[in-house]
Write a structure and sequence with these properties.
284 residues; alpha/beta; TIM Barrel; DNA polymerase, domain 1; 7-stranded mixed beta sheet; 11 helices; 37% helix; globular
Amino acid sequence: MIDLHAHTTCSDGTDSPRELVNQALINGLSVLAITDHDSIAGWQGAKDALRLDLQLVLGAEISCLTTDGISVHMLGLLFDGDNLEMTKMLEETRDGRIPRMVKMIELLNAENYEVSMEDVYAAMPEGATLGRPHLADALVNLGILKSRNEAFEGLLNNDSPFYVSHLAPTPEVAIAQIRAAGGVAVIAHPFASLRGQILTDADFAPMVAAGLNGIEVDHRDQSAVERANLRTIAKELGVVVTGSSDYHGAGKLNLLGENTTDKGEWEKLEAMASQRRVVQSDSR
């Protein structure tokens, strides 16, 4: 099984990189991608934990905003982690998360949801990339909400009055940088209507022109109709189709390997990188 989208405590997951690798082995995965939000901090820990029978794909899920202000997540896989421009883009995107969180807290406080930045930091694992899931965890810890899922279905949904976007590259800029760093770009859950405002069919062609390699089709937040539409778009534009769990450990209901990528599609995607960067235990 091939799962190309998973998170650790280095962003908003609840498993450490080592625990994520162990879970992949337990669940019989053959290929696992580590894709923390705007961060590659978990790469080394995952590599150190790697064992036989598992191939590790190093990547990141990059926060983007369209020119119309729609939030888009771009999976960058198999890129050179030492590429300076790539590192700079990830750092700048992470830095933009702090003022965003401050503003969201201000909006919540104005409506009598008493939560502070200190509460969010207390709910955030050391070294993690700050994000809405940590605000959700703080609200749960304070007894305001029952779970992360409740938070993202209500107060922290993309269409909520408490949602605030942050400075981020456009999808096209992120794609171009991923490709310049030798990697491949796959847009994550682009039609996940349960999350709020989504893209339209016409939004994909400019991304393909910028170098988009694939579309994440099989994802729990996309309906059967949305998946079918995305398959048609991918076929018409000649890009790879992927499926992924978007695993976050105990932070979300998503199960590791619940959606997977076809082996042939993965092989096509991997061949598009500038060089073979899949990590195996016998090649460390």
